[in-house]
């Protein structure tokens, strides 16, 4: 059975690249009836952030990517947490020491610093294997005395070749590798050690992760070989880029998953969009639900060229999701935005929401689309000039003056009655629909675009406010037409 794992470090935010890794891990497993494991990699205690595990949990929940198993946490199962498995790593490291594949190193920080100081130019400081030559008695004595130590991997001579699903075959000369630290002086394992132990312990078949780990993979292979364990299938993913030259990075202020949610993007749209950042379906289709992704996903569609995160594309996709949402779900998201933007209590918010649904790409855009409702914005008379409909300032003034008494006389004030009254007038005056409806729409909204047309706006705003706004339009136009 295919088993993948998502192994985030608890940093307090979900980087888009990490979420995409999680998604591909989820899809690789689920497309083949496999299991998706969650493992919190918190052995770097200096970087630990409180509340970070909750962020990971919440992200997976919102993204509909539940993990499949984990240790019992009172009736439910949690994720695997590396800091809770500290003893296991030490046990395995000692096993390697006994096998002659690893060794204790007691070198002080000062000694290591001085090694580094003697390296020139582009050379990288490699540990000089000083402690490899310690006698068993010396080692025992140091351990007895409690001298701080680390455990290092003893890199064997030769070459290491491995296959990656995305990058193909890669061969590295072992000479290039350092005797890396497996257990740190605080007793915690390094990432490089813990990931191998855990991937084996959790029977992970496909290791999917960022391409920044590609260069360390030969070292992991040597560890698998040292233990005599089966090597998993590797799937390394190219970075998600901000532009051609820069990676997307939270540190540089680029949006995390939470930031996008905060900005009014739907988790479903984010997931759909990032699925396509590095993977292409066999056809050119773009919109996929999670079930459809599971159905369509195939590692053959993964690409090794870095994908650029395009916020405009995501925004477009989010708009497609919003348009296609059932109205009730849309309203759940829209209601708080509408309530924050519209303080008048005589406005039918559901009706307003129904006009807005097809006109926004994110929920945060709603406020700006409806802020004309509470207060008519001050606007320039030029808004009345519509080239295609050939409306001029004079014509708008005249038509608004005609419309005013007709609307004032209306007894029934709803969309249909307002439209019928204006249409009558249009026919009587033998003008084009737009030549009446555009000026009325403009007077009612004070905006170059509005979520609905003249008669819907009239119904929404109510008779009194509508007449008042038309009067203001007449005043504005009179001022500029007379002075011309
Ligand atoms: N903890 C590592 C990270 O957050 C995971 C790398 C991996 O998936 O092996 O980058």
Q: What brief labels describe this structure?
A:
484 residues; 10% strand; binds glutamic acid; Rossmann fold; mainly alpha; 3-stranded parallel β-sheet; 3-stranded antiparallel β-sheet; 19 helices
How would you describe this protein?
This protein has 484 residues and is mainly α. It has four domains: 3-74 and 241-311, Rossmann fold, CATH 3.40.50.620; 82-237, HUPs (Rossmann fold, 3-Layer(aba) Sandwich); 327-370, no CATH class; 381-483, Arc Repressor Mutant, subunit A (Orthogonal Bundle), CATH 1.10.10. It has helices at residues 16-30, 52-62, 86-99, 109-117, 136-145, 191-201, 217-227, 257-262, 267-275, 290-296, 311-324, 327-341, 349-356, 365-370, 393-408, 415-429, 433-445, 454-461, 463-483, and strands spanning 3-6, 35-40, 80-81, 102-105, 150-153, 159-164, 168-173, 181-183, 206-210, 233-237, 240-241, 307-308. The longest helix is centred in the C-terminal third of the chain and has 21 residues, at 463-483. The protein is elongated. The site of glutamic acid has 8 residues, from α6.
């Amino acid at each position: 059975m295919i088993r993948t794992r998502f192994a985030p470090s608890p940093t307090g935010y979900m980087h888009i690249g990490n979420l995409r890794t999680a998604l591909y891990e989820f899809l690789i497993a689920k497309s083949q009836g496999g299991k998706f494991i969650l493992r919190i990699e918190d052995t770097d205690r200096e970087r630990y952030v409180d509340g970070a595990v909750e962020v990971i949990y919440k992200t997976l929940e919102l993204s509909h990517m539940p993990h499949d198993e984990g240790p019992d946490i009172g009736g439910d199962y949690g994720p695997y947490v590396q800091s809770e498995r500290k003893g296991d790593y030490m046990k395995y490291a000692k096993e390697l020491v006994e096998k002659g594949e690893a060794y204790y190193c007691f070198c002080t920080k000062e000694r290591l610093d001085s090694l580094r100081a003697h390296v020139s130019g582009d050379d990288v400081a490699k540990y000089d294997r000083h402690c490899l030559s310690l006698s068993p008695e010396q080692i025992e004595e140091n351990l007895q005395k409690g001298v701080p130590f680390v455990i290092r991997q003893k890199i064997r001579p030769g070459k290491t070749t491995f296959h990656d699903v995305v990058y193909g075959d890669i061969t590295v000369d072992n000479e290039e590798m350092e005797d890396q630290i497996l257990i740190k002086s605080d007793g915690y394992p390094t990432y490089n050690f813990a990931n191998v132990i855990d991937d084996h312990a959790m029977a992970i078949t496909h290791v999917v992760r960022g391409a920044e780990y590609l260069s360390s993979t030969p070292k992991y292979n040597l560890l698998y070989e040292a233990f005599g364990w089966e090597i998993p299938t590797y799937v390394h993913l190219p970075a998600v880029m901000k532009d051609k030259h820069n990676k997307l990075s939270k540190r540089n202020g680029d949006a995390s998953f939470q930031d996008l949610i905060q900005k009014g993007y739907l988790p479903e749209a984010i997931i759909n969009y990032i699925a396509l950042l590095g993977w292409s379906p066999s056809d050119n289709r773009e919109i996929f639900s999670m079930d459809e992704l599971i159905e369509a996903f195939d590692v053959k569609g993964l690409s090794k060229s870095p994908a650029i995160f395009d916020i405009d594309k995501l925004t477009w996709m989010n708009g497609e999701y919003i348009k296609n949402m059932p109205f009730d779900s849309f309203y759940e998201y829209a209601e708080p935005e509408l309530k924050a933007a519209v303080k008048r209590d005589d406005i039918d918010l559901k009706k307003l929401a129904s006009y807005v649904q097809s006109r926004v790409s994110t929920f945060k855009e709603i406020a700006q689309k409806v802020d004309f409702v509470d207060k008519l914005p001050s606007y320039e008379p030029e808004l009345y000039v519509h080239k295609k409909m050939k409306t001029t300032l004079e014509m708008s003034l005249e038509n608004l003056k005609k419309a005013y008494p007709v609307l004032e006389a209306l007894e029934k004030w709803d969309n249909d009655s307002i439209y019928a009254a204006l249409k009558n007038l249009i026919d009587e005056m033998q003008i084009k629909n737009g030549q009446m409806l555009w000026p009325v729409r403009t007077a009612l909204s004070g905006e170059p675009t509005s979520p609905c047309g003249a008669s819907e706006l009239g119904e929404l705003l109510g008779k009194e406010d509508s007449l008042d706004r038309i009067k203001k339009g007449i005043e504005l136009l009179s001022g500029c037409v007379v002075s011309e």
